[in-house]
């Protein structure tokens, strides 16, 4: 058997460029799982998505979510550990 040690990082330890990648991917995941109802998400996410739809600017949805839900997004990002490139580390249990 061989043991390999690979460093993992908390969100705040990542470079600014990688943090941006992680937050964007987190927001995109939030948007993709949105089912259209206010009950299925936070008030901020609902407001952000409906604002983008109302303004007919879906290409700005990520930015709206960041504006309305920054703390929520950061909290989600800080729940995980990451490899240096921003990929989520998932500990395998056997």
Structural topology:
Layout: E1 9-10, H1 16-33, H2 43-54, H3 61-77, E2 81-82, E3 88-89
Antiparallel strand pairs: 1-2, 2-3
Helix pairs in contact: 1-3, 2-3
What does this structure look like?
The chain has three helices and three strands; from the N terminus they run βαααββ. It has about 90 residues and is mostly helical. It has one domain. The chain has a three-stranded antiparallel sheet, with no helix packed on it. It is elongated. The model has no long low-confidence stretch (mean pLDDT about 90).
Rg, Å, rounded: 16 Å
Q: Mean pLDDT, nearest integer?
A: 90
Number of strands: 3
Tell me what portion of residues adopts beta-strand conformation. 5-15%
Query: Element order, helices and strands?
Result: EHHHEE
CA-CA gap between termini: 15 Å
Residue runs with pLDDT of under 50 for 5 or more positions: none
Class by SSE composition:
mainly alpha
Principal-axis shape: elongated
Features of the shown structure:
three-stranded antiparallel β-sheet; mainly alpha; 50% helix; 94 residues; single chain
């Amino acid at each position: 058997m061989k043991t390999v040690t690979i460093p993992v990082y908390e969100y705040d330890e990542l470079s600014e460029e990688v943090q941006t990648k992680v937050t964007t991917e987190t927001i995109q995941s939030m948007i993709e799982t949105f089912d259209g109802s206010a009950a299925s998400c936070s008030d901020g996410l609902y407001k952000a998505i409906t604002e983008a739809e109302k303004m007919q600017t879906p290409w700005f949805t990520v930015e709206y979510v960041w504006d309305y839900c920054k703390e929520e997004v950061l909290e989600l990002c800080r729940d995980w550990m990451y490899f240096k490139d921003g990929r989520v580390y998932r500990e395998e249990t056997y």
